[in-house]
Amino acid sequence: xxxxxxxxxxxxLLYGALFLVSGIVLLAITYFLVGDRIRVLVYDPPPxxxxxxxxxxxAGRRQSTDVRGLLVVQSGIALAIMTVVSLALGWVMAGRVxxxxxxxxxxxxxxxAHNLHERLALAGPDDExxxxxxxxxxxxxxLEAAFAAQRQFVANAxxxxxxxxxxxxxxxxxxxxxxxxxxxxxxxTCERVLRAGLQQERLIEALLTLARSERGLEHREPVxxxxxxxxxxxxxxxxxxxVRATLGPAAVRGDRxxxxxxxxxxxxxAVRHNVPGGHVxxxxxxxDGRPTLRIANTGPVVPAAEIQRLLRPFQRLTGRRQANxxxxxxxxxxxxxxxxxxxxxxxxRPRPDGGLVTDVTYPAADR
Length: 367
Prior knowledge:
The chain is an alpha+beta fold. The protein has helices at residues 7-43, 54-110, 128-177, 183-215, 225-234, 256-272, 307-310, 331-341; strands spanning 221-224, 242-247, 251-254, 279-287, 290-297, 345-350, 356-361.
């Protein structure tokens, strides 16, 4: 396999070629200017007037030719020498210019998933190469954060899955260890095992939805956000919380099933984290050409500093991950991931008297 020319070699040849072309142009200009001057000096008539004798004219023409030939030869030799010198200087200068790139390449090759905390930290003037190094450092910082979030997510998911499995095993071991079990005890054990299995199914389904949302949408289709929200709200009428809907036109483009899951997660979250006698206000509308969904609920007071943490998987308001069959800590993160997959923006802010106001703003329909 023939080795490829390096960037340093290509820059050196480019420098040398530019110098050679410039030198040839300079010598051509000098030749015409000096050659014309030589012709004037040789063919100038004597001071007393008249013309040169034939012999002197022939000698002058020969002298002019010799001078021009000497000019061309000597200039060519000088040009060749300086071309070689320019190639050597170009090689050195190209190496100095490309030194930060070699530093970036070597450092990037040494960085892996185990040492993403390392940075290039290029020194020097604030030029394009320094900007490239800072860009790579920014990329490494984002990768480090993504890897840390992934490891935390896997650890949390493992813990959440381990809890119902341990409960199932304990229930079965207790039932087996009973020397004289009756039908009622066995039925109660089976029901509790089934409930634990249902919790696992919900968790696995939520994790799959989250993964699918973060992967993005493969296709988009027109979705009536008002109709989807109306269907979700209709299923919450028996929740014991007053769910009030004000539904205006809101047409979006995306995945209908994921859109339905987004609305359902937000409404379920608003109903679940509420207070006795509380209410949930659900609104759809098109504001400035952008479809919007707003869900506001009464509930416990949420510190503003906790909002961003609640948008991460398996995070709850108390800050403690607990085994609660009514909540997995994935409602808001799944909704945020689905919104991002639809190029929408999900924002949440606490209400002064308790509860949250969650807005999902989709891009304009003409985008």
